[in-house]
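Section 3.1: Structural characterization of target chains.
Under the original work plan, the team committed to producing a structural model for every single-chain target entering the pipeline before any wet-lab resources were allocated. The record below documents one such target. The sequence was received from the expression subgroup and is listed exactly as submitted; it comprises 213 residues.
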Amino acid sequence: MTQPTTPKWKRRKDDRPAEILSAALDAFAENGFAETKLADVAKRAGVAKGTLYLYFDNKQDLFAAVVRHGLLTNLAPIEAAAATFEGGLAELTTLLLTRAAERMGDQRLPAIVRMVIGESRAFPELARIWHAEAIDRVMSTVAGIIEKAQARGAAPAGDPKLYVLSIMGPMMMAMLFHQVFGSDSAHAPDLGALAEQHGRLLLHGIEPRAGVG
C-alpha cells in the first residue's frame, strides 16, 4: 500500500518561517531597519502581511529572528567543533579567519552590521539584540574554546575574550571598509588574502628572530 505523502500545503507552511527570514534579511540589508516595511517583507516572501504576525510580534522581533537564524548558519559549525576541539591557538586562529573570510563574502550579513551601527542611536533595541544574539554568543563560544586550550597548555595565558578581539578585529574592519567605501574601492582589501596574512602575523610576526633586536 502506498504511504500517504505530506500535503503540499503542509510542506509550504513549514517552510514559511525560513522564507520570511530570508526575505527580511534581504530587505534589512537593502533598506535598513527604519525603511523596511513588514508589507515589503511579506511581498518578498510571497505571503500575506498578516502571516508575519503568526510568527513574529513586530519588526524588532523579526530582526532578532534574522540575527539568530544567521548566526545558527555561521556559528553552528564552530560550536560543534568546540565540543571536541583539542587544538591550540594556532589551529583556532586559522579556523576563525578562514571561516570569517568565507562568511563575509555574503554581503547581506555585513550590511546588517552596518545597519546596526548606523541606526542603533535611533533604535537602541537593535544594538541590544545584536549584542545579545551575536556578539555575546560568538565571544563566549570562541573564548570558551581558548580557555580549554589554555588549560591544556596549548594556548598562552591571557584574557580569552581579548584574544578573540585580536584575531577577529581586522576582519571586522575590512568588512566595514567594503560596506562603507564599496568593494570596487582601490583600497578594498581582499578578505581571503587578509585572513591568510593576518594569520601569519598573529602566529609568527611577533616571534623573535635570530640576529634581530
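The domain at 58-204 is CATH 1.10.357 (Tetracycline Repressor; domain 2).
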